[in-house]
């Protein structure tokens, strides 16, 4: 048995019953990393020595009877989440040498559980992108087809989980950056309700949209990780003091009594027909499991979400990225020139093309004379988008949509056309705008290429999402399929 | 609607982003294309619709005005590109 292929809950059983040690588990994972990384390239940093130390420590605790569901489990952390003493680059030249002096709150939570961190995951620079091609270092390759993208911006996290280079990963999601790569890599990816998980230590992109969430091999693992990372944090004033339930209690294999809606606007023009076929079959499965499905749901503001997102997110990003000035940390231009010239050159050479594009867009949208027409207008439409979700959730327990309109595209295919790239997130963006939770789960394949199904519900109702996801997963075999690497 | 060179240079100055002439031309095209896609929002009736800045119901999250442990100067200065004692060394802010 290749130990790296285990799920978190399977590994936990073996660890608890002393059939396997965390050291053995971690060695198997690291061996896999060495074997496939030249082809997948999911890791920016492999923390090999540190992982072995943590694994040894976990084994000591387990021997003493001190074990929780995540103890001794090898995990990968997206490189925009601060890890004390460990390089955190956001896959940007700007932070190529940045070693945080503190842990993100989610990292502290995982450390308390004695999780074994095996490394930091590659991503689109500063989380801006949908393919991981915007990484300043290298592109990650989709384990299902190495010529294709893993999605983004949490492409490294998703690819590593799919390739069994870790047992679970953490990602972040601002416009789809957990769900879309999860869909492209056939893994489970959840974006929690905004405010469910602390953002302290997550390098900020768009403060009203960002959330950290798990990428896992199955829904049970997702629930286990959510149990550990959720909750109020005094260090994040946007985290909500909502009690954290035991998400594993939602893992019920039937959907009797649940009312589901399928909003037609999510089946966009330009969607691949094979993808809608997979989703339609998946929704039929949900009906078989006992749910009632209304195919005639309409969220009329959906087509405006792209514009709303690409005004709000870059605007907030332009403010959040103003701190990168070469003064206190990170890349710092040290050629001749005035203070301002040095700052401008630091930002010119430290940031990649997409990051600069969004900073420019955001600066423009917020500037005097344009603020009302763009930013304020977008915020008003944002209210409409949120209201439509609120109204829908009065009638339905959850909404079901495709995660992405297409299967994973080829590396290089969309990178030349920013708008084409942005369109790959049309199904995921509205969810961040509204602040509601959503998951992507494996729903099937087109040939060997994964298709993800998205399940959305109202704020702080991750329980219903996990229940629907679990029931579907238990009734299908998609989550058991592995890429041939 | 194409952005002028002057507008792009002005935005770049506001964002403190150094740009080459090639960058300016590229931005003129790319930003204009993206901004064109925003015209669709003009179709939306937002009369009497309040703006949403945050999707959560929290307001004025406060804490007690009490000193709590913070990072040490060593931690904070560890990543300094240029350092002098407990200070970040920068170029002259005010020029003569």
Topology:
The complex is a heterodimer of chains A (485) and B (96).
Chain A: H1 8-16, H2 22-40, E1 43-46, H3 48-63, E2 74-78, H4 105-112, E3 116-121, H5 155-162, E4 168-173, H6 179-185, E5 188-191, E6 211-216, H7 219-229, E7 259-263, H8 273-288, E8 292-297, H9 305-320, H10 339-350, H11 353-366, H12 372-395, E9 398-402, H13 418-423, H14 429-434, E10 438-446, E11 449-456, H15 462-474
Parallel strand pairs in A: 2-3, 2-4, 7-8, 7-9
Antiparallel strand pairs in A: 1-3, 4-6, 5-6, 5-10, 9-11, 10-11
Helix pairs in contact in A: 2-3, 5-6, 7-15, 9-11, 9-12
Chain B: H1 5-14, H2 21-36, H3 73-77, E1 83-84, E2 87-88
Antiparallel strand pairs in B: 1-2
Structure characterization notes:
The complex is a heterodimer of chains A (485) and B (96). Chain A is of the alpha/beta class and 485 residues long. Chain A has one domain (1-485): Amidase signature (AS) enzymes (Alpha-Beta Complex). Chain A is 38% helix and 13% strand. In chain A, β7, α8 and β8 form a beta-alpha-beta unit. In chain A, α2 runs antiparallel to α3, α5 packs parallel to α6 (179-185) and α9 crosses α11. Chain B is built from three helices and two strands, in the order αααββ. At the A-B interface, α9, α10, α11 and α12 of A face α1 and α2 of B.
Core attributes:
heterodimer; A: 485 residues; alpha/beta; Amidase signature (AS) enzymes; 11-stranded mixed beta sheet; 11 strands; 38% helix; 13% strand; globular; B: 96 residues; mainly alpha; Histone, subunit A; two-stranded antiparallel sheet; 3 helices; 4% strand; flat
> Over the alpha carbons, how many angstroms does the gyration radius of chain B reach?
23 Å
Shape verdict of chain B: flat
Q: What low-confidence regions of chain A span 5 or more consecutive residues with pLDDT below 50?
A: none
CATH topology of the domain at 1-46 in chain B: Histone, subunit A
Total of helices of chain B:
3
Write down the overall geometry of chain A: globular
Q: What oligomeric state best describes the polypeptide chains here?
A: heterodimer
Supply the CATH superfamily name of the domain at 1-46 in chain B: Glu-tRNAGln amidotransferase C subunit, N-terminal domain
Helix fraction bin of chain A: 25-40%
Tally the beta strands of chain A: 11
> Which architecture of the domain at 1-46 in chain B would the CATH scheme give at its second level?
Orthogonal Bundle
Q: Count interface residues per chain for the largest interface.
A: A-B, 68 and 48 residues
SSE string of chain A, helix = H, strand = E?
A: HHEHEHEHEHEEHEHEHHHHEHHEEH
């Amino acid at each position: 048995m290749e130990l790296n292929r285990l799920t978190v809950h399977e590994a936990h059983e073996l660890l608890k019953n002393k059939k396997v040690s965390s050291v053995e588990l971690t060695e198997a994972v690291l061996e896999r990393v060495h074997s496939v990384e030249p082809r997948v390239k999911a890791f920016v940093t492999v923390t090999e020595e540190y992982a072995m130390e943590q694994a040894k420590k976990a084994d000591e605790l387990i021997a003493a009877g001190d074990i929780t569901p995540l103890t001794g489990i090898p995990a990968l952390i997206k490189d925009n989440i601060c890890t004390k003493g460990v390089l955190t680059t956001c896959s940007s030249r700007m932070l190529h040498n940045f070693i945080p002096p503190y842990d993100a709150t989610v990292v502290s939570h995982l450390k308390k559980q004695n999780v074994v961190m095996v490394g930091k995951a590659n991503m689109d620079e500063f989380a801006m992108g949908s393919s991981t091609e915007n990484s300043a270092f290298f592109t990650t390759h989709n384990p299902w087809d190495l010529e294709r993208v893993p999605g983004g911006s949490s492409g490294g996290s998703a690819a590593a989980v799919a390739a069994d280079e870790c047992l679970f990963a953490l990602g972040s999601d601002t416009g789809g950056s957990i769900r879309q790569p999860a869909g492209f890599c056939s893994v489970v990816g959840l974006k929690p309700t905004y405010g469910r998980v602390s953002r302290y230590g997550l390098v900020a992109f768009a403060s009203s949209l960002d959330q950290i969430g798990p990428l896992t091999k199955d829904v049970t693992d997702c629930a286990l990780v959510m149990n550990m990372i959720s909750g109020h944090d005094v260090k994040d004033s946007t985290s909500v003091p909502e009690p954290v339930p035991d998400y594993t209690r939602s893992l019920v294999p039937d959907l009797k009594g649940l009312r589901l809606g399928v909003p037609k606007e999510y089946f966009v023009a330009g969607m691949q027909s094979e993808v809608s076929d997979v989703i339609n079959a998946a929704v039929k499965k949900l009906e078989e499991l006992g749910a009632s499905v209304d195919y005639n749901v309409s969220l009329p503001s959906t087509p405006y979400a792209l514009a709303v997102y690409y005004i709000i997110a870059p605007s907030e990003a332009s403010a959040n990225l103003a701190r990168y000035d070469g003064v206190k940390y990170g890349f710092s231009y040290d050629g001749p020139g005035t203070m301002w010239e040095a700052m401008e050159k630091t930002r010119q050479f430290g940031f990649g093309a997409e990051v600069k594009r969004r900073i420019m867009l955001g600066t423009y949208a917020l500037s005097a004379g344009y603020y009302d027409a763009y930013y304020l207008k977008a915020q008003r439409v944002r209210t409409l988008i949120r209201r439509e979700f609120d109204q829908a959730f009065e009638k339905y327990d959850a909404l079901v949509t495709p995660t992405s309109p297409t299967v994973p595209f080829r590396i290089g295919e969309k990178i030349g056309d920013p708008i084409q790239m942005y369109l790959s997130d049309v199904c995921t963006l509205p969810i961040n705008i509204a602040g509601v939770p959503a998951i992507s789960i494996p729903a099937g394949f087109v040939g060997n290429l994964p298709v993800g199904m998205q399940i959305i519900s109202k704020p702080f109702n991750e329980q219903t999402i996990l229940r629907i996801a679990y029931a579907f997963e238990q009734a299908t075999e998609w989550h058991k399929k592995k890429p041939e690497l | 609607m194409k952005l002028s060179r002057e507008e792009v240079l002005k935005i770049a100055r506001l964002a403190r982003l150094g740009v080459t002439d090639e960058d300016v031309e590229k931005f003129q095209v790319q930003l204009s294309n993206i901004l064109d896609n925003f015209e669709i929002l003009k179709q939306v009736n937002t009369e009497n619709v309040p703006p949403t800045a945050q999707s959560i119901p929290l307001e004025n999250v406060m804490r007690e005005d009490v000193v709590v442990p913070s990072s040490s100067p060593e931690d904070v200065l560890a990543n300094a590109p240029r350092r002098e004692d407990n200070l970040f060394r920068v170029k002259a802010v005010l020029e003569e």
